[in-house]
Amino acid sequence: MQSLGAWQVPPELDDLRRSVADFVAREVRPYEVGLDVDAIQLDDEHLTAARIKARAAGLWCLASPVEYGGAGLNFLAQALVAEESAQCKLGAYAPAGGAFGWDPPNLIFGGTPDQIERYAVPSIRDGKKAFVAISEQSGGSDPARSIQTRADRDGDKWVLNGTKTWISGALEANWGVVFARTGVAPGRNGISCFIVDRDAPGLSMRPIPVIRAWSPAEVHLENCRVPLSNLLGEEGEGFVLANRWLTTARITYAAGCVGVARAALTMAISYSKERQAFGGFLSDKQAIQWMLADSEVDLRAARLLVYEAAWKADMGQEFKTEASVAKVFATEAAGRVIDRCLQIFGGIGLSKELPLERWYRELRIKRIGEGPSEIHRMVIARALLRGE
C-alpha cells in the first residue's frame, strides 16, 4: 500500500506560500511601522505600490476566476495564502495590508453575464470592496428564520425595506448583495438575493463601533428600489446562495486566524530567548516552554483541519461539517495562542507598541464572526447524529 506524500502540500503550492511570505516581509511589514495603532490598511502611497507589485506577481483577487481578472486559486491555495498574508500587524482584517485586493463575494459569479460584467469585473479591476448583508437584529446566526427585510415587486423594480446589522466592509463598498424575503413561505423558503448599489436611493448606513478598529455597519433600506435585473439567482433561492458563501468563506477565515497566531508565537519565541528573569532566560523556564509547546500543538492541529476542509472542497465533496470544525478550532486555538503570547511578554505585551493587544481584540471577534462557535458545534453535532 503506497501512502507516501498523502499529507504533503504540492510543491507548486509550497512555492506560492514562500512567495507570499516573502512579499509580506518585503512589501508590507516594513511599511506598517509608524502607522496608527488601529490603521485598517497601508497608507495610500505604499498600498498603491504594493498592489502594483502584487498584480505583477499574480497575487491579485486570489479567489476570483482568471477570466475576470483574478488569480483563480483553489481552496487549498487560498488557505495557504490566507495564513501567510495574515502575518502582519494589519493581517487579521486586511491580509497583506490590503495589497492583494478584495475578492467580490463569490455569489456574483453565479449571476448573469451582465451582472458579472457590471459588478464583479470593475471591483476586481479597481480593487474595490463589496459587502454581503444577511444578519439582522432579530438574529444573525439563524438567517433562515430571522430575515425580516422584505423585497416587493413594483413594476420594473424591486422595493426593499428593512435593516441589516454587523455588515463588514459596507462602509467602504461600492455595492453589495442583500438578502430579503420575497414570499410568504416561512424559514429558508422565500428568501431572495439582490445586488444593491451603494448610492441607491433609500440606502443608508452608519458605523457600529466595536473592539476592533474596522467598524461593521448597520445598513438601512427604506423603499430602496433596485432593477428587476439585480435579482441574483432565482427568486426564493437566496438561502442556498447565502449558505454556499458562508461555508466557503470559513476556510480562509480559519486560515487567517492561524496566520495571526503564528506571527504572535514567532514573536513570543524570539522574546523568550532574549528576556532574562530570575537568573536565566525566559526560554529556560518550564512554564514558558509549555506555553510555547501548547501553542505549537494548537496551530498544527488547526492548520490540518483547515487543509482537510479545503481539500474536500477542492475535490467537490461535501465539506460543510469540515468547514465548521476548522472554524471552531482555529478561531478558539488562535485565541488561546494570542493569550499565551501576551502572558509571555508580560506588561509590554499589553502596550500598543506591539501588535499583540490589537490581535487579542481582533481574534476575540473571530469566535463570533462567520457564525459563533456554538452554532458550528450544533452543525457538527447534527452531522454526527445523522451518522455522517
Q: How is the biggest beta sheet arranged?
A: 4 strands, mixed
Q: How large is the count of helical segments?
A: 12
| CATH architecture field of the largest domain | Up-down Bundle
Give a count of the beta strands, DSSP E runs of length 2 or more. 10
What is the N-to-C succession of helices and strands?
HHHHHEHEEEEEEEHEEHHHHH
User: Uncertain regions: pLDDT < 50 for 5+ in a row?
Assistant: none
Distance between the amino and carboxyl termini: 27 Å
**Cα radius of gyration in angstroms:** 22 Å
Oligomeric category = single chain
Question: What would you call the shape?
Answer: globular
**Fraction of residues in H or I helices:** 40-55%
CATH domain class of the largest domain: Mainly Alpha
The CATH superfamily of the largest domain bears the name: Butyryl-CoA Dehydrogenase, subunit A, domain 3
Beta-sheet strand percentage?
A: 15-25%
Count of domains: 3
**Could you say which structural class the secondary elements and strand pairing correspond to?**
alpha+beta
Which strand order spans the largest sheet, edge to edge or round the barrel?
1-4-5-8
Integer average pLDDT? 94
- CATH fold name of the largest domain: Butyryl-CoA Dehydrogenase, subunit A, domain 3
Brief summary of the model shown:
By secondary structure, the chain is α+β, with helices and mostly antiparallel strands. It is 47% helix and 15% strand. It is built from 12 helices and 10 strands.
